[in-house]
Queue: 3 jobs
Job 1
Amino acid sequence: MPRVPAVPHVIYGADYNPEQWPPEVWREDVALMREAGVNLVSLGIFSWALLERAPGEFDFAWLDEVMELLHAGGIGVNLATATASPPPWLSTLYPDSRPVTVDGVRLEVGGRQLYCPSHPGFRAHVATLVRAMADRYGTHPAVQLWHVGNEYGCHIDQCYCDTCAVKFRAWLRARYTTLDALNAAWGTAFWSQHYGEWAQIQPPRRAPTYANPTQQLDWRRFSSDNILELYQLEAGILRDVTPDIPVTTNFLGFLPGLDYFEWATHEDVASVDAYPDPAAAHPHLEAGMIFDLTRSLRGGQRWILMEQATSAVNWRAINAPKAPGLTRLLNHQALAHGASGIMYFQWRASKAGAEKYHSALVQHPGPQRTRVWREVVAFGEELRTLTPLLDARVRARVGIVFDWHSRWALELDSKPAQLSLMPLVQAWYAALRQLGQNVDFVHPGGDLGAYDLLVMPNSYLLTDADATNVRAYVQGGGHLVTGFFSGIVDGHEHIGLGGYPASLRDVLGLWVEEWVPLHPDELTHVRFTGAATPVPATTWAEVIHPTGAEVLATFQDGYWQGGPAITRHVSGQGQATYIATQLPEQSLMDVLRGALTDAGMPHTTLPPHLDVTLSETQGGLILHLLNAHRADPVQVTVPGTLHTLDGQPLAQPLTLEPYGVRLVRVPAGFSVADITVVAGRH
Ligand code: GLA
Ligand code: ZN
């Protein structure tokens, strides 16, 4: 059974850092929290230095008092283990507990997350503190949830110190058993890299030229696992002392360094921090991807939005505020995409420190004097009407394949071109959302049979097992669309021979002879069969030989002119479509629309600023309509009789003001193809 905190309402709250304020403020805080409808706060995340002023000298008195005040005010606590930022005494005691960069620089005190995840002294102090926290507060009635660490890997996702080098070797021994196996996997016959002793192996520190790619890839795997081990050290103690309190740690969306598919299996509930840039063209697409990932990581279980800004952050070059209404819109979006809790960073804006220009619920001018305060209070009020969403389930029939290991491998250097995964994923995600689809992210080794359409914007690395899983999905009747440079290497990052992409060419019904990476300002042109004019494409072209695939579009330039650019192949009971270039938005939508049609799935074409999600509750289907346009209203109609969440009939057309939200009960049998946008399409 999933263990989401057993609260009968949507969680609403914030990071609370009372140690930055005198006790009189704490009392005011609790009163204001009640006014805002806050029912949970994350407490103690950065409190280590004030909880343990010197090694073994604990001072819990102030935290006891805060806990009592919160509890008396009816506010629950998401209690941190307080280990996110070790106190300065720790690095004085153990200078080698400070992490080391790829260039061999040992980092200094003054920031946060200053630790080497392997250091035994650091780990021992972590274990002592976590046990002390669990012993002291594990039976406190305010505690609803454990918040382990904070954003693991957000600053230090790899430490290149000697202690980590020793652990890396142990990790490699467990993976390969023999040096022969390691030498084979790393391809060390190349450049005279053969290892004769385990002790010769180092982390991929700064080298004269390209480091060994498999060494680098294994290093990323090790680094994610090693930090996970640190998380598990804490989680293990908590489960030991307080088996009934669920455990989470806040993820950071598509953070590069950690394999969250692996990490999430070790949590009781997934939680995430999401900071879309309010100045971006479509902040809701940035946020939506993070929300959908977080839901997907634990098989559709509801999750907690642990942090977001009420308005501006402090860490971009230019920190735009969230315009009035945007926070509410994004909160609704989180709920639509499966959240059961909406929280912010942080409760009260700091007056000192590196985050003093970061927005909060209580802003610097003072409580009740800002529009941000009025917005968060109004949303706290509104949330009370949204309890029915707690049992809603977002079911996606489209899965986007995502794998951190493949991303690490793709983004290593010494490739045909320097490719980044996220822009490709973003483009495909945006296209699928505009086609009206609920979207999951799925690991290539995951349960693919749950999806009618599987898309792989790029899966450069597919292990043999994952490739078998993807092929079986297609042959068993699934519909796959894959982008270029997928299925090229195996789990050791070795190229499959005999025509690219070796692990997929049978299901794709083709083989690729050559790649033609393009310069940033270079175009290639693609003409769809039957189309009068070609469309410009970017980034990549290929020389493809079909071995059964039908050609849907051809390249129009260079020596690759006339060759296939987009193909479709029936394989077993299913089919696989291949896109050998980066298409412009509309053309990508056309190909994906065709694949949805082939898969027998309903679709529509929505304006990019209209976020549409369908969720299922015991009481029927709920359509979540969100207008992310800052200036223009949208109007839609849907056939049949519509109702509000509490069952009132709704007049049509439905109007969504700028940043407007409508939650609509739609009749059984509804599909997104039933939506007509009557105004507000751009
Ligand atoms: C992260 C951290 C918080 C805070 C915010 C600021 O999410 O977890 O402690 O630093 O960023 O945006
Ligand atoms: Zn280290």
Job 2
Amino acid sequence: MKGVNVGVAPVTYGTGDRAPRGEYGRARSDYTCAQDFAQYTEADHATYRRLYERQLQQLPGLACDEFISAVHKLGAPEQIPRFDDISERLMKATGWQIVGVPGLIPEEAFFSLLAEQRFPVTDWIRKPEEFDYVVEPDIFHDLFGHVPLLFNPVFADYMQAYGAGGMKASRLDACELLARLYWYTVEFGLIHTPQGLRAYGAGILSSAGELRYSVTSPEPKRVGFDLQRLMRSRYRIDTFQASYFVIDSFQQLFDATAPDFTAVYREVRESILAEGEIDAGQVLPGERLYSTV
Ligand code: PHE
Ligand code: FE
């Protein structure tokens, strides 16, 4: 199974069909573990710093303001940050904490951590030869990509609601539909601002190549956020996305996903049966796309 160029796993969470590379023996029953700070070598700290600096200088004009204004809350990149330091700041801002995990975890465990306002962060970092390409999320993707927006109250509430919604989706056998929502928002979401399109998805923000591509390339399709349309849409895991969904605000995203999904899942299943799934890159008749200019 091939991963993406962004440090995002083929399966966003969940162990997938391949043995994950982390050491799970040290994890507690909820899959969290202490951040193994002693494991980091000087080379690991240098990898983090180089990744951070490369991404930071790309943010202006491409990342959303909420991300840019919060990214420094990760702390100076001279060293890999300590999870406890970030948690202290995050707790004050939005009530969230970050917790270490050895790598990908099963989706039920992932959902309940989010519902408890605990964001799981992989504690190991990619090797230098994986600088541009790593098949599983590592600490750089998880911290740099995901944590800054957890300082935003509305986005943080969305993540918590997603976790609670995931537990419900497990009972309704709807995890595959719900995972599409995570993929197209939390990982690969774009937001429309008065200054133009900007990225807020972690998979884009932690990617050296996809950040600019997602916001400026004329190639991919950029569709306005529509929950049912999104849940009918397949996604690509082995290359840059062919389609992105665009929100107007985090409040819009929160409000659109607040209703009970029980009926939504039923309706989406019915429309998939009637009209099929929508391929990545496919545009429906009459659908308006966002342009990059
Ligand atoms: N409203 C959703 C439900 O009832 C929960 C949810 C919220 C899911 C936000 C995802 C994001 O299932
Ligand atoms: Fe991620």
Job 3
Amino acid sequence: MKVLVTGGCGYIGSHTILELLKNDMEVIIVDSLINSKKDVIDKIKKITGKDVTFYEIDLCDKEKLRTIFEKEKFDSVIHFAGLKAVGESVEKPLMYYENNLISTINLLDLMKEYNVKKIVFSSSATVYGNPQSLPIKEDFPLSTTNPYGTTKLMIETILKDLYKSDNSFDITILRYFNPIGADKSGLLGEDPNGIPNNLMPYIVRVAVGKLPILNIFGDDYNTVDGTGVRDYIHVCDLADGHVLALKNKKTGLKIYNLGTGKGTSVLELVNTFEHVNNVKVNRQIAPRRDGDIDACYASNELAKQELGFNPKYTIEDMCRDSYNFVKNN
Ligand code: NAD
Ligand code: WQD
């Protein structure tokens, strides 16, 4: 199978490409490098010993994107490309709507024109807003609290409408929970520019001395120890979910949660990180962060049943591999 991977130089895309190559799939990458670096391509080649084709193209440039559809005959698309910083999306909503929506509409339009009908799309647990109960199932009500999340929900709606208009499309929407961890090689990982917003990139920077102290946003949530609970999933398990989605015999429009089904609090994650890596993470309790919810974790039963999804990495593995990447880089 030949797969077009948009956003393939990014964190989740690059790890998924390792899995695709291990499964003998051929990979074409399109990335504008707006949030990634070209050296990821060499690292992928070094880890796998296999070649990939890379095009530095912004998906918002439809005519440039068309050249790839003309040149490469691929069977399916995994669409990771998009901007993902929640806070930035509140400050620059138009940039988020333009980048995430125009790119996707261009891609889908060209897929239709060139008769490429299979797509796997990166959605997010953010589309569940503040869930009514836990664990979160795929049929729970959807709502969003920031422009980033709204772009994900809008793209899900676009995909559903596209499918209604043309049911020869084979669409899989994957709703990721909180991906962390890195490939064992230590070559690929999450490397955000500037001060990180997400918890794990912040923890590792404090551990290596690049940031002085971790602010734990709130200790009065209705959770096991008062700190926020999330469903952290190893990025390599997430990558595996994409290969399973491509191989899925069930066609049509499908939606799956990709999480472990287990909640971990901020304090539990920080303490585990310290323990497995034998390193100190300075921390202090700080006020709650606007928009945060008490707890969020997935029911992954549907992905288990229909995809054979079976996440195998523990929180300990995730902490070890995240630290290993940052120490090496
Ligand atoms: P990332 O920023 O590391 O990767 C995204 C890639 O897309 C980057 O390489 C970027 O340069 C590229 N890109 C962005 N806009 C583009 C455009 N218009 N044209 C071409 N390339 C473009 O992010 P990630 O963590 O790997 O996330 C991948 C996808 O998964 C995103 O759509 C994100 O919203 C979604 N997601 C991520 C998380 C998370 O916590 N990391 C959770 C849920 C969903
Ligand atoms: C996790 C927990 C914080 C930083 C976000 C997006 C979501 C998805 C994944 C893309 C919370 C606490 C954090 C810090 C802290 N991304 N925290 N100190 O908010 O669950 O989800 O990333 O789709 O859309 O909203 O992840 O890693 O930011 O926070 O105490 O410095 O860590 O309050 O409880 P979140 P996160």
